[in-house]
Amino acid sequence: MSQEARKLPYGDGRDALLSAVLDVVAEKGLRGASYRSVAARAGVNHALITHHFGSMEGLLAATMEWSVQRSIQETGLSGLAEPDGNFADSLIATVSAEPELQLFQFEMVLESRRNPQIRTLVERLYASYVSTVEEALTRRGLDTGNEAALAIFAALDGLMLQFVTMSDPARIRAAVHQVARLITALEPANGTTGTPGTN
Prior knowledge:
Blueprint lengths: L11 H17 L6 H8 L4 H7 L2 H20 L9 H13 L1 H13 L4 H24 L7 H20 L2 H22 L9
């Protein structure tokens, strides 16, 4: 059966293209993502990219938003409100199971140095992550003025980059535990006891 003759249920073509972008970029880098390579990986006609997203740029933007939402949800990033061993294990297990989510985002971050359109997407990516961390810290009763959230996210982001490139789970897990200790250390500095709403 040809790809054009293959009938996907409504909505599957769009989702298949988003997933295919992750795979292609993880394997070939951002410059390897073309209409044909992404459509071939998705098993659909490349005209669907234009149909659903308007252009490759539209597809990359949609994939970025989709990948960030999935990453925040699946890694349990909002679990920083209670940073324990489960958070570290969940983070590492999620990234191990689907490293393409992080690799795609890292490729976009690097490309943003050369492409102002992608820079805007990356700024939104970071804003989503830092906002999620800030909300988790606020639930813990910490008023950090956003600087701590940025620092904590930067630490986790760097650790995940090391993990997907060098894969040393024990070392990365220990480092994530250290980030949890740093969060706990913020409590006395903020006059909190770890219980939201108390001082």
